[in-house]
Design goal:
Elements lengths: L1 E6 L7 E8 L8 H10 L1 H12 L11 E5 L5 E8 L10 H18 L3 E4 L11 H14 L6 E6 L2 H10 L1
Parallel strand pairs: 1-6, 2-4, 2-5, 5-6
Antiparallel strand pairs: 3-4
Bound molecules: ligand AR6.
Ligand AR6 binds next to strand 2 and helix 1.
Length: about 170
């Protein structure tokens, strides 16, 4: 598997699938979730609504992943995953790792060869970047997947530098 790091906006990435750091409701939010729905258009939310009306009536559990169309984005699919909120009192790193492995598992079911990830849980959900980078890189490296390219799309220079140091 080829692992690459880029600094930029994930909504601009050409990849078979881009991953969204969503929340359980799948109804959109701020951060990368807001950007994906804004730029991708209403088609994505429409599919999310159908998922909520069907299989995910109670919402998508933390650490799980599900795919929709990518609407107007230059990707074929958006894989929505729900990161854990960072906690000082409880070790939730297995749930964060699960976001990466479950997203890759969904990518495999789609036949996606290239997948772009944001740094899940490192914004509104408060996960320290260095620890999140360690967990993300380890999870992706150890994943049993047919995906041949994983790209981490880091929003700012500091996040990029942290991932680069870890890599
Ligand atoms: N491209 C790439 N990375 C981005 C972009 C972008 N366009 N925008 C932000 N980031 P966050 P979370 C980075 O808050 O912490 C939403 O409301 C950002 O700098 O998007 O998992 C959801 O609905 C940070 O490093 O996701 C949930 O309620 C990283 O993406 C909640 O936020 C993740 O930040 C999820 O929180």
């Amino acid at each position: 598997m080829k692992l690459t790091l880029v600094q930029g906006d994930i909504t601009r990435q050409r990849a078979d699938a881009i991953v969204n750091a969503a929340n359980s409701s799948l109804m959109g939010g701020g951060g990368v979730d807001g950007a994906i729905h804004r730029r991708g258009g209403p088609e994505i939310l429409e599919e999310c609504r159908k998922l909520r009306a069907g299989q995910y009536g109670k919402g998508l559990p933390t650490g799980r992943a599900v795919a929709t169309t990518a609407g107007r984005l230059p990707a074929r699919w958006v894989i929505h995953t729900v990161g854990p909120v960072h906690s000082r009192s409880e070790d939730r790193s297995a749930l964060l790792a699960s976001c990466y492995t479950e997203s890759l598992r969904v990518a495999d079911t789609l036949g996606a060869a290239s997948v772009a990830f944001p740094a899940i849980s490192t914004g509104i959900y408060g996960w320290p970047m260095d620890d999140a980078a360690r967990i993300a890189l380890e999870a992706v490296r150890q994943a049993d997947t047919a995906v041949t390219e994983v790209r981490f799309v880091l929003f700012d220079a500091a996040a990029y530098a942290t991932f680069e140091a870890r890599l």
